[in-house]
Specification:
This protein is mainly alpha-helical. It has a domain at 15-74. 44% of the residues lie in helices and 0% in strands. It contains two helices and no strands. The chain has helices at residues 17-33, 38-71. The longest helix is centred in the middle third of the chain and has 34 residues, at 38-71. It is elongated, with a radius of gyration of 26 Å. It starts with 16 loop residues before the first helix and ends in a 46-residue tail after the last helix.
């Protein structure tokens, strides 16, 4: 384990994504616990930031590897995810008119083959 500038053993950032997520969950639990001092909170926050960055790095590496695997046959089948793009909206169904004298306003759901995607 690496040592920090004061000679203390510094925790290393895990290499496996699952380990990163587990450590990040532990950090969040400590921070939400409300028992840490300001200095301990700052150190935990710093650790959390390092873990988030490592997680993003691991995910980006995995994404690139998947793209490589999908492109091995010479066809580009990867559609990159776009952040900040709104999902398509489903058109609204007009409100039904009252039927009969009972005043019931039950609606019949549209057939499943009318789904726009």
């Amino acid at each position: 384990m690496a040592k920090d500038s004061k000679g203390k053993a510094a925790e290393e950032v895990p290499e496996q994504y699952g380990d990163v997520v587990q450590r990040l969950e532990d950090v969040v639990a400590r921070l939400e616990g409300g028992t840490l001092t300001l200095e301990e909170s700052l150190k935990s926050f710093e650790e959390g930031i390092k873990l988030v960055r490592r997680g993003e790095q691991l995910l980006n590496t995995a994404e690139k590897r998947i793209e490589e695997l999908l492109n091995e046959d010479g066809r580009d089948v990867v559609v990159p995810l776009q952040t900040g793009v709104k999902a398509p909206t489903v058109p609204s169904v007009p409100a039904p008119t009252a039927r009969g004298s009972s005043g019931s306003s039950r609606t019949t759901p549209p057939p499943e083959d009318d789904v726009p995607f």
